[in-house]
Design the sequence.
C-alpha cells in the first residue's frame, strides 16, 4: 500500500492498464506533453508515445466519436473531456451512438470506451468549470456512470471501467484531485462497477451520496453524532448500474433517507434514488425521502460568496439531517 | 480515357481493361445495381400495400454506391454508411435476405433484430458500421476505425458515406480535420442528390461542390458524375489506394439524383417541379450503365435477361423468406442493453416483467 492522492490513483490506473494491454489508448485535449490540465495523464506520453497518447483538436464530439470507432475496431480508448462542462458537444455521440450500439446491433457490436471527465464545483470554476453532469447520462440506458470518492476506488473503478465491454462515463470531482489521500495498492486490482459501499454504519438515518459529497456527508454525520443522531453514509460509487441491495438494505434498516447531490435539485440523479427508495422501501420508511442538492440556478456563479451559496457543505447537510431526523 | 460510344466494333473486354477490371466485374457491378434497385422498388410496393410501415430509398444513388464501394477489400476494409446505402451494403457482402429482414423488422434481421427503422443497415462481420438516424455521426466512427487500423497495423481503409445534407454537420468538420492531421486511411463519400429532404442544395451549401471544402483540410476533393459508374470506381480506387498508402483522406463527391421522395412519408412533388423530376429521370444510373455495357459489348440481350431473371428470383426469395420470418419477442427487448445483463434496470419487484420474461437481474428480487 502506498498513500496516493486521488489524481495519482487515476494516473496509476491508466498507466498500469496501458502497460498491460496495448489496445488501451488515451486521447483528449492537452493530454500529451502537458499531461492534461490537471496532470491526470502526466508521463503517459513520454512512456507510450504519440500513437497511444493523442493530443486532439478542441473537438469534444470528435474525441468521443473517434473513440467509438476505435473501440469498434479493437482498441480500448480512454477519452478525456477536459471539463465535464464541455461534454455537451459530444452528447449526441454518447447518447445516440455509444449507448445504443450494443442494443441496436443485438449485441453484435459493443463500445468498450471510457470517457473521463472532471466535474464538480467549489473550485472557483464558475458556470462552465463547475458542473455536475451525471443526470444527463444516468438517464441513458447503455452507458455506465461511475463516480469514485476515494483514491482506492478511483484506481480500482477506472481499471474496471477500462476492462468493461460497455461505455463508461468516469466522473472525477476536481476538488478531490489533490485534497484527498488514501492507501492505494501498487499492484493490479479492480473495484467492481455496480457496488455501493457503506462508509459509515449507523442506525437512525441513511445519507446517500457520491463523489465529493460523500466526504461532506461523513463530516456532517460526525457533527450530528454528538447530538445523538446516528447516520449511516452510503457511497454509491456507481450511479448506473445502481447497487439497489446496499441502498435499500440501509434504508430498510434506518427508516429514513436523505439523498445528497451537488447538481441542481430538480430532475437530478438523486431524484431517481428518492423514487426507488419510495417505491421499494415504502413499508420501512418513517419519514419523507428527502433531498438536499444544489439550487436551481442555471449554473454555479463565480463570486466566492455566490459559490458558497450554491455549494453544499457539511453544515448544510447536517441541517438537513437534523430536520429529517426530527420528522 | 473516355467512353465515346463511337467504336461500334469495340471488342468485349476492352472497356473493362481500361479500368483494370474484367467483364465479369462489370457484369457483377451491373447486377448489384439492378438488385439494389429491384429490392428498393419491392420495398415501396410493400409499403404502399400496407405490409411495411416505412421505406427509405437509395434509388438514383446505386451507380455511385456500386462504383465507389467496389475497390474496397471485402470483410477487411470498413464502411460507415447511411440510410440510402442499400447498394453499398450489397457490394460489401450483405444479402437480399439481410435487406428484406431489415425491411420487415424481423428477429433475424442481422442489422438490428427489428429494433431500427428499415434502411438502418449494419453487419459487423462484413465491417458495416450500424447506421443510426442522426446524420453524419458515422464519419467519426470511420475516423476512429481508421485510427485503430493504423495503430494496430491492420492496413484497413475506412469509408464514411453520407448525403450532402449531412455534410453540413459539425462532425464532418471535426472528423476531416483530425483525419487530415494524422493522414488516416479514410475516405469520405458525399452522395450529393441536391436535396436535404426538401431543402435544395442552394439553400444548404454555400458552395456548388461539397468537394471544394476538402481544400480547407488540405486533402483532395474530387467530384464525380454519379451516373458514371466507372468514373466513380476510378475516383474511389485512387482514394482507397492513397489512404492505404498512408497519404491520408480524400473527399469524393458523387453527383446523384434522388428518384424517390426522401422516404415513404415524403411527397416530393410538393417542393420539386414536374420538369425537374422528369429531368432527374434522365440521370438514372441504371439505364445509363446498361447502355454503356451494351455499347461496349459486355452486355447482350441474353445476359441482360438472365440477370433480370436472377434478380427477380432473388427479390422474390428474399421477400417471402423475410415476410415469413418470425417477429422479435418482447421478452427479448431488454437484451443487449449492457453486455452484463445484471447491469440492466429491473422493474420494481411487484411489477409484471415485459413479455413474462424473468427479471434481468441486478435488482433486489425480494
Sequence:
Amino acid at each position: 500500500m502506498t498513500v496516493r492522492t486521488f489524481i495519482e490513483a487515476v494516473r496509476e490506473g491508466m498507466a498500469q492498464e496501458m502497460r498491460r494491454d496495448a489496445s488501451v489508448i488515451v486521447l483528449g485535449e492537452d493530454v500529451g506533453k502537458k499531461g492534461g490540465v490537471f496532470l491526470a495523464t502526466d508521463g503517459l506520453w513520454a512512456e507510450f508515445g504519440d500513437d497511444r497518447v493523442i493530443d486532439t483538436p478542441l473537438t469534444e464530439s470528435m474525441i468521443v466519436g473517434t473513440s467509438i470507432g476505435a473501440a469498434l475496431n479493437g482498441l480500448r480508448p480512454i477519452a478525456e473531456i477536459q471539463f465535464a462542462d464541455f461534454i455537451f458537444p459530444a452528447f449526441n455521440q454518447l447518447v445516440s451512438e455509444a449507448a445504443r450500439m450494443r442494443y441496436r446491433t443485438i449485441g453484435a457490436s459493443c463500445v468498450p470506451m471510457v470517457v473521463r471527465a472532471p466535474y464538480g464545483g467549489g473550485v472557483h470554476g464558475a458556470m462552465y468549470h463547475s458542473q455536475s453532469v451525471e443526470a444527463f447520462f444516468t438517464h441513458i440506458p447503455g452507458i455506465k456512470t461511475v463516480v469514485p470518492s476515494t483514491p482506492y476506488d478511483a484506481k480500482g473503478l477506472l481499471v474496471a471501467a477500462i476492462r468493461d465491454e460497455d461505455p463508461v462515463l468516469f466522473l472525477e470531482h476536481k476538488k478531490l484531485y489533490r485534497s484527498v489521500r488514501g492507501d492505494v495498492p501498487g499492484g493490479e486490482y479492480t473495484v467492481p462497477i455496480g457496488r455501493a459501499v457503506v462508509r459509515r454504519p449507523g442506525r437512525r438515518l441513511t445519507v446517500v451520496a457520491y463523489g465529493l459529497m460523500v466526504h461532506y456527508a461523513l463530516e456532517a454525520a460526525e457533527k450530528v453524532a454528538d447530538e445523538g443522531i446516528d447516520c449511516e453514509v452510503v457511497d454509491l460509487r456507481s450511479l448506473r448500474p445502481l447497487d439497489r441491495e446496499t441502498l435499500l438494505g440501509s434504508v430498510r434498516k434506518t427508516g429514513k433517507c436523505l439523498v445528497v447531490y451537488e447538481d441542481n435539485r430538480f430532475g437530478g440523479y438523486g431524484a431517481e434514488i428518492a423514487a426507488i427508495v419510495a417505491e421499494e422501501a415504502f413499508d420501512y420508511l418513517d419519514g419523507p425521502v428527502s433531498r438536499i442538492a444544489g439550487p436551481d440556478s442555471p449554473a454555479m456563479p463565480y463570486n466566492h460568496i455566490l459559490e458558497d451559496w450554491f455549494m453544499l457543505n457539511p453544515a448544510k447537510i447536517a441541517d438537513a439531517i437534523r430536520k429529517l431526523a426530527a420528522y | 480515357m473516355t467512353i465515346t460510344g463511337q467504336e461500334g466494333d469495340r471488342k468485349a473486354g476492352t472497356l473493362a481493361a481500361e479500368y483494370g477490371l474484367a467483364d465479369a466485374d462489370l457484369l457483377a457491378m451491373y447486377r448489384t445495381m439492378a438488385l439494389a434497385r429491384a429490392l428498393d422498388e419491392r420495398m415501396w410496393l410493400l409499403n404502399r400495400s400496407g405490409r411495411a410501415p416505412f421505406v427509405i430509398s437509395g434509388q438514383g444513388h446505386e451507380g455511385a454506391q456500386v462504383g465507389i464501394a467496389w475497390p474496397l477489400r471485402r470483410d477487411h476494409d470498413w464502411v460507415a454508411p447511411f440510410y440510402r446505402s442499400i447498394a453499398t451494403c450489397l457490394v460489401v457482402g450483405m444479402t437480399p435476405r439481410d435487406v428484406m429482414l431489415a425491411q420487415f423488422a424481423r428477429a433475424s434481421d442481422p442489422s438490428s433484430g427489428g429494433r431500427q427503422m428499415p434502411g438502418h443497415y449494419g453487419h459487423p462481420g462484413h465491417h458495416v458500421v450500424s447506421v443510426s438516424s442522426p446524420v453524419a455521426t458515422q464519419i467519426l466512427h470511420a475516423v476512429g476505425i481508421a485510427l485503430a487500423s493504423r495503430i494496430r497495423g491492420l492496413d484497413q481503409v475506412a469509408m464514411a458515406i453520407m448525403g450532402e445534407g449531412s455534410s453540413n454537420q459539425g462532425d464532418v468538420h471535426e472528423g476531416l480535420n483530425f483525419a487530415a492531421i494524422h493522414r488516416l486511411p479514410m475516405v469520405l463519400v458525399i452522395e450529393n442528390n441536391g436535396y436535404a429532404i426538401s431543402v435544395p442544395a442552394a439553400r444548404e451549401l454555400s458552395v456548388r461542390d461539397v468537394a471544394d471544402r476538402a481544400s480547407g483540410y488540405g486533402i483532395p476533393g474530387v467530384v464525380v458524375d454519379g451516373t458514371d459508374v466507372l468514373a466513380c470506381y476510378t475516383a474511389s480506387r485512387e482514394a482507397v489506394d492513397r489512404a492505404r498508402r498512408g497519404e491520408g483522406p480524400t473527399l469524393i463527391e458523387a453527383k446523384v439524383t434522388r428518384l424517390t421522395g426522401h422516404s415513404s412519408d415524403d411527397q416530393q412533388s410538393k417542393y420539386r417541379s414536374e420538369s425537374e423530376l422528369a429531368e432527374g429521370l434522365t440521370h438514372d444510373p441504371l439505364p445509363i450503365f446498361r447502355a454503356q455495357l451494351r455499347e461496349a459489348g459486355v452486355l447482350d440481350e441474353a445476359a441482360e435477361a438472365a440477370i433480370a431473371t436472377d434478380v427477380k428470383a432473388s427479390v422474390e426469395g428474399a421477400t417471402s423468406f423475410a415476410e415469413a420470418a418470425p417477429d422479435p419477442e418482447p421478452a427479448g427487448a431488454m437484451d443487449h442493453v449492457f453486455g452484463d445483463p445484471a447491469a440492466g434496470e429491473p422493474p420494481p419487484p411487484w411489477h409484471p416483467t415485459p413479455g413474462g420474461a424473468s427479471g434481468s437481474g441486478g435488482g433486489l428480487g425480494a
